[in-house]
């Protein structure tokens, strides 16, 4: 097997990065790897825009009085923070960047099934982004990221239509990405790459794509109806005409709850790649981890109304949704236990990607367990619309999804860029992110439990100490996020050249040079081994990372 | 780029570089279209769900609203769409047999039938505007004219029926417009002779889309026009 041979790549070798130069070669590319990089640049931009709003929110909450911004501005800040982070960073983040880059490589294909549709999805994303930024710069939105009616349709006088349209178009873009992945995984696998030999990242991408395909259209029609109601006075959600605002919430959460799994499943896939590699063991319970991804996608569609326990829906329906929400814990726990079982007696190397994976496992467990608090009807009544909820979903979305994303970026950066990032700096950044994250969001659990409501720009003075801690944590977190961006950019020029397989990892993507040639493989690979078979395939016993 | 010999061998000009053979390409495109239709089912599903709930709650209003719609224009439109589905089905067959002229004729017929549908729909909408049956500030509904004298009709709630009527038929019509545009492009390529027995996937997939849009109307017609029509 050629993956273990340590051939130093010749810098002039033709690859997807140096094959063509110039703006046209990027903007008209149909290469999935280049489109992944286009997405990387775009979502990084939105991450920092959304992060900027987050920092303003935290600054305002440094003091109990509304001194930095007024109430109206504060409403816009948290609305735009949510909309940009959810629809323009978290949802596309791993699928559109790492998924785009890795799906064809991991299954041994030359490209995604529909390369031009892939490029179209990026353009749709950019159109959506321009619409969103226009809405932001010409007055913003103050409905919260949830667009609840009738406030969004009848009362708010901000840019609801524009933001709704932006999210509609962004949704179209993610539908096309999901469609591309499902078709590619079904039809483009290399000879011998059976379903049970697929890397777990592919399984998680498959599950994510199913949610893209079945969930996103419902959000699209919901936002369309909101736009119709605002623009043409249709009255579907308008209570003065017999319309039902609860119907809006049902339709909205039918997408937006599964959307949480769009964010977390890809990260789980990444952790399932990193953990076996850095513990040099086959993953424990492969088929259970794979099926848990599908299980989360399926159960995820059956729990949406747990966002509405106090909204006035039937208590019997609430009981059923509460029970179903508990069920999601089962596949999630299967994953956590199987990762820890993989680590058990493994030959562990504490490299940066594994540190992020550890962060993911710990923070996701906390986020998941507090999710069970919220699924319990009695506790939910107490903590609804408090900072407890805010802390819970940030543990999932930031502690889980973003940790996984950063872990994946470090793990595959040598493959993407052909360069190594500075390992010690990487570990330092992982540590800063972990500390900053916990300092930011753990106090919010306590604040929420003590009764501080979310979405207010002022609060009683007794909550100040915990809020100061949270704001301090957010600045540390910001440093932890800026640091990788700086050293990734630095490494593109000055980093050590990466070998084809710097981690000694299993997987087809490591059997082609770093960075890969335009059509990924010199010849179509033949797969004759199981995924993560670290005991049997010819791979180094230790991760060959430089200290 | 080193194309493997197998790919050079088949050398169908329509084959894209990243597929191993035409069969794989056809299967991928077909699966992609079916998945896209699944997303469309979910898209319309949101509105059908709203329809179900409100019709259950406000049945008298829905029945009264339904009676204001022109059943004949709706029925004719249903017939027009079914005919267009036939011409589409035949056009796929014509493409498979490589009959270029027949293919172009059938595609043009489909486009014309689609435009007839949109024209009739436009006439129906225009009359709704004249009757002030469009939801909004100028909405006005005279309950007695369209309902049993002893059922109570809420003149506010009936706007929900018309809201759904305009949303559902409007988004359906938008899909028709997209379909007509799609067939216009395909007609151009068919006229150029791009499709033959080895490569007709675009016709097949556009046909699938058209049948889907047709099926949506097959549901919309009874749900919107045929509520409580018995004398």
Low-confidence stretches of chain B: 1-9
Quote the distance from N terminus to C terminus of chain B: 72 Å
Low-confidence stretches of chain A: 1-5
Mean pLDDT of chain B: 90
How many strands, what sense, and barrel or not for the largest sheet of chain A? none
Cα-atom Rg of chain B, whole angstroms? 22 Å
Structural class of chain B: mainly alpha
Structural class of chain A: mainly alpha
Provide the CATH superfamily of chain A: Cytochrome c oxidase-like, subunit I domain
% residues in beta strands of chain B: under 5%
Helix content of chain A: 55-70%
Number of domains of chain B: 1
Give the overall form of chain A: globular
CATH class identity of chain A: Mainly Alpha
Please provide the ordered H/E string of secondary-structure elements of chain B.
Answer: HHHHHHHH
Oligomer: heterodimer
Q: Could you walk me through the main structural features you see in this protein, from its secondary elements to its overall organization?
A:
The complex is a heterodimer of chains A (547) and B (231). Helix content of chain A is 66%, strand content 0%. Chain A is an all-alpha fold and 547 residues long. Chain A has one domain: Cytochrome C Oxidase, Chain A (Up-down Bundle), CATH 1.20.210. In chain A, α6 runs antiparallel to α7 and α8 runs antiparallel to α11. Chain A is globular and about 65 Å long. The N terminus of chain A is likely disordered. Chain B is mainly alpha-helical. Chain B has one domain: Four Helix Bundle (Hemerythrin (Met), subunit A), CATH 1.20.120.80. Chain B has 8 helices and no strands. The N terminus of chain B is likely disordered. At the A-B interface, α6 and α7 of A face α2 and α7 of B.
């Amino acid at each position: 097997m050629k993956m273990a041979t340590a051939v130093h790549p010749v810098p002039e070798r033709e690859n997807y990065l140096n094959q063509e130069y110039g703006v046209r070669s990027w903007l008209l590319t149909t290469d999935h790897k280049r489109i992944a990089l286009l997405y990387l640049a775009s979502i990084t931009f939105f991450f920092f825009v959304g992060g900027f709003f987050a920092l303003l929110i935290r600054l305002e909450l440094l003091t109990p009085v509304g001194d930095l911004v007024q109430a109206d501005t504060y409403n816009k800040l948290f609305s735009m923070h949510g909309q940009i982070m959810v629809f323009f960073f978290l949802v596309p983040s791993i699928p559109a960047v790492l998924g785009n880059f890795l799906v064809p490589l991991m299954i041994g294909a030359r490209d995604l099934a529909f390369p031009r549709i892939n490029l179209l999805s990026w353009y749709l994303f950019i159109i959506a982004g321009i619409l969103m930024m226009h809405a932001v710069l010409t007055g913003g939105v103050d409905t919260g990221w949830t667009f609840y009616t009738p406030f969004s349709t009848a009362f708010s006088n901000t840019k609801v239509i524009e933001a709704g349209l932006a999210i509609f178009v962004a949704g179209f873009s993610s539908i096309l990405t999901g469609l591309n992945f499902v078709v590619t995984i079904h039809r483009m696998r290399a000879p011998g790459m059976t379903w049970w030999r697929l890397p777990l990242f592919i399984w998680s991408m498959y599950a994510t794509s199913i949610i893209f395909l079945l969930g996103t259209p419902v959000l699209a029609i919901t936002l369309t109806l909101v736009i119709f109601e605002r623009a043409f006075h249709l009255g579907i959600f308008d209570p003065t005409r017999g319309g039902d605002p609860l119907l809006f919430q049902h339709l909205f959460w039918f997408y937006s709850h599964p959307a949480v799994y769009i964010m977390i499943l890809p990260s789980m896939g990444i952790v399932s790649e990193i953990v076996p590699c850095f513990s040099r063991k086959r993953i424990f319970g492969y088929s259970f981890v794979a099926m848990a991804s599908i299980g989360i996608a399926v159960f995820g569609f059956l729990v949406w109304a747990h966002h509405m326990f106090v909204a006035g829906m039937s208590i019997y329906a609430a009981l059923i949704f509460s029970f179903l929400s508990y069920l999601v814990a089962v596949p999630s726990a299967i994953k956590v236990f199987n990762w820890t079982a993989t680590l058990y007696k493994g030959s562990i190397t504490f490299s940066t990607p594994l540190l992020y994976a550890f962060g993911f496992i710990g923070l996701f467990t906390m986020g998941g367990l507090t999710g069970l608090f919220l699924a319990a009807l009695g506790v939910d009544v107490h903590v609804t619309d408090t900072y407890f909820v805010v802390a819970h979903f940030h543990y999932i979305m930031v502690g889980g999804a973003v940790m996984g994303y950063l872990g994946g970026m470090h793990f595959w950066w040598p493959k993407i860029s052909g360069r190594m990032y500075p390992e010690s700096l990487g570990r330092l950044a992982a540590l800063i992110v972990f500390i900053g994250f916990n300092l930011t969001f753990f106090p919010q659990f306590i604040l929420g439990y003590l009764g501080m409501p979310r979405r207010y720009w002022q609060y009683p003075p007794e909550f100040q100490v915990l809020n100061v801690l949270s704001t301090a944590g957010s600045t540390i977190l910001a440093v932890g996020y800026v640091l990788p961006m700086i050293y990734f950019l630095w490494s593109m020029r000055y980093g050590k050249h990466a070998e084809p397989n710097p981690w000694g990892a299993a997987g087809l993507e490591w059997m082609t040079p770093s960075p890969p040639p335009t059509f990924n493989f010199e010849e179509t690979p033949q797969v004759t081994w199981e995924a993560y078979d670290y005991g049997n395939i010819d791979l180094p016993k230790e991760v060959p990372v430089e200290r | 780029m080193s194309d493997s010999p197998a790919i050079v061998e088949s050398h169908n000009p329509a084959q894209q570089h990243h597929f191993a053979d035409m069969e794989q390409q056809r299967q991928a495109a077909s699966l992609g279209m079916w998945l896209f239709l699944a997303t469309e089912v979910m898209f319309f599903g949101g509105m059908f769900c709203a329809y179900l709930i409100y019709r259950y709650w406000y049945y008298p209003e829905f029945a009264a609203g339904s009676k204001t719609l022109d059943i004949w224009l709706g029925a004719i439109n249903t017939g027009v769409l079914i005919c267009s589905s036939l011409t589409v089905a035949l056009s796929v067959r014509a493409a498979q047999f490589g009959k270029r002229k027949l293919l172009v004729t059938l595609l043009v017929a489909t486009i014309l039938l689609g435009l007839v549908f949109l024209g009739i729909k436009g006439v129906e909408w225009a009359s709704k505007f004249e009757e002030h049956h469009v939801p909004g500030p100028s909405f006005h509904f005279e309950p007695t004219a369209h309902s049993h004298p002893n059922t109570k009709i809420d003149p506010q709630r009936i706007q929900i029926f018309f809201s759904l009527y305009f949303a559902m038929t409007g988004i359906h019509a938008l899909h028709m417009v997209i379909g007509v545009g799609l067939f216009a492009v395909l007609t151009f390529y068919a006229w150029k002779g791009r499709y033959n027995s080895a490569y007709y996937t675009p016709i097949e997939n556009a046909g699938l889309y058209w049948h889907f849009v047709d099926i949506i109307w097959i549901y919309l017609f009874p749900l919107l026009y045929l509520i409580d029509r018995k004398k």
